[in-house]
């Protein structure tokens, strides 16, 4: 009954991607220490080798330094070092086949489509790079479902997007669904939006 009342007045649903639309094999089902991230690190090491002609050991040490010292991440470190954009780095290291990491059978893609058909405006808000976001949505056949797609190259923290949306729309008409309290839920709740914690992708079925 409580969820029904929440959804009745809901106009906009903001969905996180990694850890929400599907689970990873990392820490507690998140992307942290997952096979995906390990692949990205391997790609990043090769990225450095290709530019500097150094050994794999030296490249690995540089990538490790980037992970430890840059608050934004490897992309920012590499962009400064090689005079490129973060997007150029992502296109070489995150252009990965989601089929190797995303279990489509545990992703409620049909549920998400039904939400759109029932008149809900769906926004995607992910910290992932654009190329990974686009690859995932194509893999899940959800490219045309989201009215807006915010990826990690568009902001420093998700709080910026929640702040902008709270100023553009009535916060009471927005629900944010995600698996990470500090980044997906708290910033939304702080601005008067409704929140829905996702512990398993199939939890999204409760929103119908």
Short description:
This protein is an alpha/beta fold and 208 residues long. 46% of the residues lie in helices and 10% in strands.
Topology of helices and strands:
Layout: H1 2-8, E1 12-15, H2 35-52, H3 56-69, H4 74-82, H5 86-93, H6 109-117, E2 121-125, H7 130-139, E3 148-150, H8 158-168, E4 174-178, H9 181-189, E5 194-197
Helix pairs in contact: 2-3, 4-5, 8-9
Describe this structure in words.
The protein contains nine helices and five strands, in the order αβαααααβαβαβαβ. It is α/β, with parallel strands linked by helices and 208 residues long. The chain has two domains: 2-26 and 102-207, 3-Layer(aba) Sandwich (Rossmann fold); 35-98. The protein has a five-stranded parallel β-sheet, with helices on both faces. The radius of gyration is 18 Å and the shape is globular.
CATH superfamily of the largest domain: HAD superfamily/HAD-like
- Sheet having the most strands: 5 strands, parallel
What is the number of beta strands?
A: 5
Low-pLDDT stretches are none
What are the main properties of this structure?
Rossmann fold; five-stranded parallel β-sheet; 5 strands; 10% strand; alpha/beta
């Amino acid at each position: 009954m409580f969820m029904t009342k929440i959804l009745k007045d809901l106009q906009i649903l903001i969905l996180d991607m990694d850890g929400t639309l599907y689970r990873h094999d990392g820490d507690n089902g998140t992307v942290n220490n997952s096979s995906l991230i390990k692949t990205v690190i391997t790609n990043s090491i090769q990225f450095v080798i290709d530019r500097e002609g150094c050994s794999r050991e030296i490249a690995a040490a540089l990538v490790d330094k980037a992970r430890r010292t840059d608050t934004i991440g490897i992309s920012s470190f590499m962009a400064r070092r090689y005079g490129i954009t973060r997007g150029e780095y992502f296109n070489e290291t995150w252009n990965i086949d989601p089929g190797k990491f995303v279990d489509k059978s545990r992703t409620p893609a049909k549920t998400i489509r039904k939400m759109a058909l029932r008149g809900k405006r769906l926004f995607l808000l992910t910290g992932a790079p654009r190329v990974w976001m686009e690859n995932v949505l194509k893999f899940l056949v959800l490219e045309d479902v989201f009215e807006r797609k915010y990826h990690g190259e568009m902001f420093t923290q998700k709080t910026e997007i929640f702040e902008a949306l709270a100023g553009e729309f009535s916060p009471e008409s927005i629900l944010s669904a995600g698996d990470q309290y500090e980044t997906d839920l708290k910033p939304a709740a702080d601005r008067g939006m409704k929140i829905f914690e996702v512990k398993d992708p199939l939890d999204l079925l409760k929103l119908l």
